[in-house]
From TrEMBL:
<feature type="transmembrane region" description="Helical">
    <location>
        <begin position="526"/>
        <end position="547"/>
    </location>
</feature>
<dbReference type="InterPro" id="IPR020846">
    <property type="entry name" value="MFS_dom"/>
</dbReference>
<feature type="transmembrane region" description="Helical">
    <location>
        <begin position="12"/>
        <end position="37"/>
    </location>
</feature>
<dbReference type="Pfam" id="PF03137">
    <property type="entry name" value="OATP"/>
</dbReference>
<dbReference type="InterPro" id="IPR004156">
    <property type="entry name" value="OATP"/>
</dbReference>
<dbReference type="GO" id="GO:0043252">
    <property type="term" value="P:sodium-independent organic anion transport"/>
</dbReference>
<feature type="transmembrane region" description="Helical">
    <location>
        <begin position="49"/>
        <end position="70"/>
    </location>
</feature>
<keyword id="KW-0445">Lipid transport</keyword>
<dbReference type="GO" id="GO:0015347">
    <property type="term" value="F:sodium-independent organic anion transmembrane transporter activity"/>
</dbReference>
<dbReference type="InterPro" id="IPR036259">
    <property type="entry name" value="MFS_trans_sf"/>
</dbReference>
<dbReference type="InterPro" id="IPR002350">
    <property type="entry name" value="Kazal_dom"/>
</dbReference>
<dbReference type="Pfam" id="PF07648">
    <property type="entry name" value="Kazal_2"/>
</dbReference>
<feature type="transmembrane region" description="Helical">
    <location>
        <begin position="295"/>
        <end position="315"/>
    </location>
</feature>
<dbReference type="GO" id="GO:0015125">
    <property type="term" value="F:bile acid transmembrane transporter activity"/>
</dbReference>
<feature type="transmembrane region" description="Helical">
    <location>
        <begin position="365"/>
        <end position="383"/>
    </location>
</feature>
<feature type="transmembrane region" description="Helical">
    <location>
        <begin position="171"/>
        <end position="191"/>
    </location>
</feature>
<keyword id="KW-0812">Transmembrane</keyword>
Length: 651
């Protein structure tokens, strides 16, 4: 879903704010049931609740796909071409009609679209199916991690629990990895694949108007969710504690005179849950949990980490596309192939380190704090990855090639294209021989063309000629110009991103285990649920909204919907984009560093005090044992003599 959000935005002709609501509906679905599921976790049949959640996810996914089969074909934004005197040539620059101003053409076009039934298409609310499906996916996903992790931790040895949970979290990352790979594959396929002749398309996956087959991946994921639910129906309510089975076998083999009934260890039966009692105990339980200062600081840390992580993942592909001239499909593919496997490796190694060195909670806190601070310092190097802004005539550079910070709309019309009657709000870019991108072939002043589809080439472009080229036919090709310098710095950025991801993931599992070691066993499921709830409601829900709102401020050129109005952004100020995007992440992680240090200090104080109290208790027990032993010796020696002499029992 994260990789397909851009495709959904373009397909349904909706604004970024609506896309944010669709994206946040998953978190809203989580919030609706998360607290209840987590609180009742130890009182219900956890595997069956997880199985039911998988079925709800499957149904929600299929519901999201329905609009594709109810809508017509996708028509992308492109300029009309007029026939030249020769029937084989098409011209983007047409002579204006009398008394017509270029801006009036846009108004007339909007009126014509309304008359042709476009108003009906614009009022379509089929995207609500996607929102409701995502909401159901959130409801179904809510019980999986809280109940699943607590189920494993309850029946595993303490020294093995961290390793098992680290393995589960690592394997859980395989899902997003496959999801990003599937998203990259679907993003390269045309949305109406199998229905439209691809040779007739004039755009490619690098174009900002391209819409991939967003629905195909969701169909596959819905089927996988259904299959994943099946094994959970056959798991028992509870399992024997790890190690008890071996002890039971030893006892049964060595016992000779003990009856079988005494050797049997029955598994706990499912308790009868009274809803009124559960609700009555909810507030005292919540107060007890939030009264734990270690857990409270951990909760604030989780919220900030959720904000930085969700903001990074949501807009990472857009950042790569705009900053390094990489297509969305390739950015999705690289995240799935490189970034997520490295994160999986780091999470697995984190759990292995805890098991190998038998780290106590203080060791986990120290390791997590050190890795996060190291990753944060490396994170600051992101700002060195600079890239130039795309040169768009009349937008970022003048038609003579002079760079300027901003341009008013009337600068889009120059002397070289003033006779072409160009529509100001259209975006169908072409790249001129001079290396400058023009918003449309009309703005480039192109008066003839050859070829069809993606291979169309425009000639006799007067604005390209105005750049001062001495020879050539002043042609332009479809698509925006490539920025070679940006592409060269991309491998360094990817290496830095992968290194930071590995270091962060190393400390992820130890930090996660702090939550389990700092709360009482009966509050584990509830603690996981509160942690996920606060992270999602204060991190997963608002982060895409304020990240997106601030990134939108860096937009230089907005697209136009088929029925009028602003669509998605076509060109960003890459320097401002970088400063806003990376600055937000760096600021949030600076707060995380402070909370990590605070958490480490609290854990040291709390558990050092507990260890001192334990040492004092042991020394008191030892001294009392010594006193009782010496006293018992004075009493038993006479008794021993009596036994030897009289063979009587000493009372």
């Amino acid at each position: 879903m994260k990789s397909m959000s851009t495709q959904i935005e373009r397909r349904f002709e909706i604004s970024s704010s609506v896309v944010g609501i669709i994206d946040g509906s998953f978190e809203i679905g989580n919030l609706m049931v998360m607290i209840l599921v987590s609180y009742l976790g130890s009182k219900v049949h956890r595997p069956k609740v997880i199985a039911a959640g998988c079925l709800i996810m499957s149904f929600g996914t299929f519901l999201s796909v329905m609009p594709h089969f109810l809508m017509g074909r996708y028509n992308y934004e492109r300029i009309p071409l007029t026939e030249d005197n020769s029937s084989t040539s098409l011209s983007a620059c047409s002579l204006p009609l009398p008394l017509h101003h270029p801006t009036l053409d846009a108004m007339e076009m909007t009126r014509e679209l309304k008359n042709s039934g476009c108003e009906k298409a614009a009022s379509s609310y089929l995207w609500i199916f996607v929102l409701m499906g995502n909401l159901l996916r959130g409801i179904g996903e809510a019980p999986i991690m809280p109940l699943g992790v607590s189920y494993v931790d309850d029946f595993a040895k303490e020294e093995n629990s961290a390793f098992y949970i680290g393995t589960i979290r690592s394997c859980g990352m395989v899902g997003p990895t496959l999801g990003f790979l599937l998203g990259a594959f679907c993003a390269n396929l045309w949305v109406d694949v199998g229905v439209v002749d691809l040779e007739s398309l004039t755009i490619n996956p690098k174009d900002t108007r391209w819409v991939g087959a967003w629905w195909l991946g969701l169909v596959i994921c819905g089927a996988v969710s259904f299959l994943a639910s099946l094994p959970f129906w056959f798991l028992p309510y509870s399992l024997p504690k790890e190690g008890e089975e071996r002890n039971l076998k030893k006892l049964s083999e060595s016992s000779v005179t003990i009856q079988e009934d005494h050797c049997k260890i029955e598994l706990p039966s499912q308790p009868q849950l009274k809803f009124s009692e559960a609700v009555k105990d909810f507030l005292p339980t919540l107060k007890k949990l939030l009264g734990n200062p270690v857990f409270l600081v951990y909760l604030f840390l989780t919220i900030l980490q959720y904000n930085s992580m969700v903001g990074l993942i949501t807009f990472e592909t857009k950042f790569m596309e705009q900053q390094f001239n990489v297509s969305v499909s390739r950015a999705i593919f690289l995240i799935g192939v490189i970034l997520l496997p490295i994160t999986i490796l780091g999470m697995f190694l984190g759990g292995f380190i805890i098991k190998k060195f038998k780290l106590h909670i203080t060791g986990m806190a120290k390791f997590g704090c050190a890795t996060f601070i190291a990753a944060y310092l490396l994170n600051l190097l992101y700002f060195t990855c600079d890239c130039e802004v795309l040169q768009v005539a009349g937008l970022t550079v003048s038609y003579s090639g002079v760079k300027q910070s901003s341009f008013p709309k009337n600068n889009l019309i120059a002397s070289c294209n003033s006779d072409c009657s160009c529509v100001l709000n259209q975006w169908d870019p072409v790249c001129g021989d001079n290396g400058i991108t023009y918003m449309t072939a009309c703005f480039a002043g192109c008066k003839s063309s050859i070829g069809t589809g993606k291979n169309m080439v425009f000639h006799n472009c007067s604005c390209v000629q105005a750049e001062g080229l001495e020879s050539g036919n002043f042609s332009a090709v479809l698509g925006q110009c490539q920025r070679e310098s940006c592409t060269k710095t991309f491998p360094y950025f990817l290496a830095l991103l992968s290194t930071c991801a590995l270091i962060l993931a190393l400390g992820g599992t130890p930090t996660y285990m702090i939550m389990f070691r700092s709360v009482s066993p009966d509050l584990k499921s509830f603690a996981v649920g509160i942690d996920a709830l606060c992270g999602r409601i204060l991190g997963g829900l608002p982060a895409p909204i304020y990240f997106g709102a601030l990134i939108d401020q860096t937009c230089l050129k907005w697209g136009t919907k088929r029925c009028g109005g602003s669509g998605s952004c076509r060109v960003y100020d890459t320097k401002a984009f970088r400063n806003v995007y990376l600055g937000l992440i760096a600021g949030l992680r600076a707060g995380c560093c402070f909370l990590y240090i605070t958490l480490f200090i609290l854990i040291i104080k709390r558990f050092q005090q507990e260890s001192n109290e334990l040492i004092d208790l042991k020394s008191t027990e030892v001294s009392s044992r010594k006193g009782s032993t010496s006293g018992s010796k004075n009493e038993t020696f006479p008794c021993a003599k009596a036994l030897e002499a009289n063979e009587e029992t000493c009372l």
